[in-house]
């Protein structure tokens, strides 16, 4: 039987990935600091533990797996990554996880491992305009990420590729661009823009207002979770290492995203712009290399993902109140 290890299986992407692999007939082991928050795990075996501990890594990576997915990281949205207070923890914790997981995989002859990097690796100077950001994969150097989160991701990319060269491992490095959907963080300070805006719209009475950080003209693209998993598993089973972007090319302003969510919710709200952490001015996924190497392209429109995500967050808000 095919087997998979999902590191970070208690998180948003990891918990959805476990479900996907189970549907494909895998025996799945998950590991994380906690169980998934919003639904019971579907993993055959789930270990609650800290991957910063090399002994824990040796315990969970006790055999060769058909596929290993390393999604575990200390991360969050702009309100967590860009305020500066969490930089040491972000770099230390995520680097320790990657060092331990890779070494444990090497010792147990696990050859096939996916690493979830981030669009945050791209240079700040290529993303200073809202309408014309550059995220073609080769432009990552000369390096100047806009956060220590991005610097750690870039270091870890090189770590995985070094293990591939030196230890005959088959790594796959995917740079995620703003993955969203149900069963993700929505009110704990680590939520990303789609979840935060869905929450704000759900909380507001029709005719009221919501707050937007900055002028709202900063641009991003957002990829729905199902599309992310399809892109990830196709890439994992290819014969190419990457790094490669995994995201949507449907760029939108934050104001535009808020208006899209309001339309889905059937509410008319005023946007009040306030100071807050922003990140780069513009960012969009460049999918040309993925489409060339893998032969598949993202097709789901952002609005469809919002239509699936907003009702879930609205339900969470009602349940918690």
From TrEMBL:
Residues 4-247 form the NAD-dependent epimerase/dehydratase domain. InterPro entries: Epimerase_deHydtase, NAD(P)-bd_dom_sf. The keyword NAD applies. Transmembrane segments: none annotated. It comes from the Bacteria. Keywords: NAD. PANTHER family: EPIMERASE-RELATED (PTHR43574). This is NAD-dependent dehydratase. It comes from Solemya pervernicosa gill symbiont.
